[in-house]
Each structure stands twice: as structure tokens, then as C-alpha cells.
């Protein structure tokens, strides 16, 4: 069985400043340390997938002809990602401006730049690809075209619907898996009154909702799966969701059952929250294995019961 994942999506250079708190509208906050990190939802997910091990990872991305592209390419290549790079001479490499507060919250503004240059014609051959992983930081018509091409080729399609926006039925019809957080679920499912209603409104074979520090839940083939979060002291939650997505799809590509994949993805995203930066925070398979081997840290029956009660499903 093929064990290859193609990630098609965004790549940005993140400009990160740390501050006591995220500024309110009209407020100026005096920051402290400033650093740049390779980021972008697509690139983060590709790095997470590659570091999870066991699945060859490819990425289709668009970059500008500028110095901002270099650290992004270096990070992806160092993680073992095979690149299909579209170079745009007119648009700059995508950038994100991140304010990271002392309580690990963040506020992010993205300038898409060259990410907007990804077009349907750029999709590489899908021979040998098992999963296509998409996000919403590239044009909607491009995402839809890629999903349709993958479905026609017998490739499974996972979409992380972030940033949040309403999704056309034509796109939902191409998906095998949809991954959203609570805010994204509200937008995609038309502001449902509760999680159960939101899940029921989405005509996708598998829907996963991440719930931050609580964990996540999945609906697949009429059954509901729960995975409580690992207890950690967060430093920076940037790329936690991307780490979850990339690790999850890599586990599924390796043939793991969904419940096992949710556990591995939750462990990886927890570790990512304990470090600074986007791709710099993503753990490798050995680090995840150490966490999963520690029975004192793996969520137990009480955590499952608490999550089930909170979800009220």
C-alpha cells in the first residue's frame, strides 16, 4: 500500500514578537524578544507529517523570489519534505505577523503574498499519493480543483478548514476528512447550537473537531471518538493545530486506526505547545513515542469521562 502524503498549501515566514499581552484595538504594547520562524499552515503541516515518520511527505507551495523564501525551504528540506515549488516573480513570499503573549495566546495577521499564486494547473502528478492534505490559506477555487483531482485519482482528501470561512457543498462533497476547531465549526456548519448539531450538519465521512486544552472529538461512520488532551504548561500555541493535522494524516497513511491516530496527533500537538515558533516547535516521532510511553501522562479513563460529559454527545 502506498504511504505518501501530498500537502498542498501555504508557506509563510513568521515575524514573532513576545509581549505581556496581545494588544487591544488602538492599544500599543511594548514588546520584548523578536524572532523569525518558518511557518504557514501548509508548510507546518508538511513538517509535522514528515517528522511523524513512516510516510513520505511531499509539498506543493508557492514562494516569492526573495530572501524570505530561503529559511522556509531550508526548514522543509531539513524535515525531509520533497518540494514542488512554484516561484512567483511578482508576489513576495507570504508573511505572518505574530504577537505572542506571556500566557501563550497569540494574535496573527497573514499577508498571503505568493500563496495566492497557487493555481489548479500547478498540482503535480498524484501517482503513489495516498492522502492529499489541504488548508484554506490558498485560493478557494484552487483548493476545490485539487480536491476534485484527488478524488478522481482515488486519493483520500483531508481539509483543515482554517482560516475559517463558509465552504461550498461542492468542496465538502470531495472530502474524506474535515478537521476544524470550535470556531471553524461554527462558521462551516452555520453557527450550530452545540457540537452534536454541528457534526450532524456536515456531510463528510469523517469530521474532527479540536477543542484546545480539552482535547478533540471525531465523528466517523456513525460513531463518535473522543481523545482528551495531554496536560502541559503551554509556552506558544502557534502551529499546535497544524502539528495535529500533519501527525494525524501521517498516522492514517501508515495504516493506523483513527483512535490511534488521534492519540498520536494529540501528543505531538501538546509537545509543540511547550516550545517557541511554528515549525521549530514540531516534535519528531521519537519524542512523541517517549510521551506516549509515559503512562502517567497519557490521559486515562477519568479524562475521557470528563471530556464526554463536557461534549454532552
UniProtKB/TrEMBL annotation:
Q: Which residues bind substrate?
A: 12-14, 40-44, 137, 242
Source taxon at top rank: Bacteria
Pfam families in alphabetical order: PfkB
Kindly state which keywords UniProt assigns to this record, in alphabetical order.
Answer: ATP-binding, Carbohydrate metabolism, Cytoplasm, Kinase, Magnesium, Metal-binding, Nucleotide-binding, Potassium, Transferase
**Which major enzyme category is it?**
transferase
State how the cofactor is bound: Requires a divalent cation, most likely magnesium in vivo, as an electrophilic catalyst to aid phosphoryl group transfer. It is the chelate of the metal and the nucleotide that is the actual substrate.
Primary location class: cytoplasm
Name the pathway it acts in.
Carbohydrate metabolism; D-ribose degradation; D-ribose 5-phosphate from beta-D-ribopyranose: step 2/2
What residues sit in the active site?
242 (proton acceptor)
Carbohydrate kinase PfkB domain: residues covered = 5-284
Transmembrane region(s): none
| Ligand binding (K(+)) | 236, 238, 272, 275, 277, 281
EC code: 2.7.1.15
> Which residues hold ATP?
181, 210-215, 241-242
User: Does the entry feature the keyword Coiled coil, yes or no?
Assistant: no
Q: Report the cofactors.
A: Mg(2+)
Give the record's free-text account of how this protein's activity is regulated.
Activated by a monovalent cation that binds near, but not in, the active site. The most likely occupant of the site in vivo is potassium. Ion binding induces a conformational change that may alter substrate affinity.
- Cellular compartments annotated: Cytoplasm
Q: How does it assemble?
A: Homodimer.
Classification via PANTHER family: RIBOKINASE, SUGAR KINASE
- Entry's family note: Belongs to the carbohydrate kinase PfkB family. Ribokinase subfamily.
HAMAP family on file: Ribokinase (MF_01987)
Function of the molecule: Catalyzes the phosphorylation of ribose at O-5 in a reaction requiring ATP and magnesium. The resulting D-ribose-5-phosphate can then be used either for sythesis of nucleotides, histidine, and tryptophan, or as a component of the pentose phosphate pathway.
Q: What is this protein called?
A: Ribokinase
Q: Which organism is it from?
A: Stenotrophomonas nitritireducens
Phylogenetic classification of the source organism: Bacteria, Pseudomonadati, Pseudomonadota, Gammaproteobacteria, Lysobacterales
Question: Gene name?
Answer: rbsK
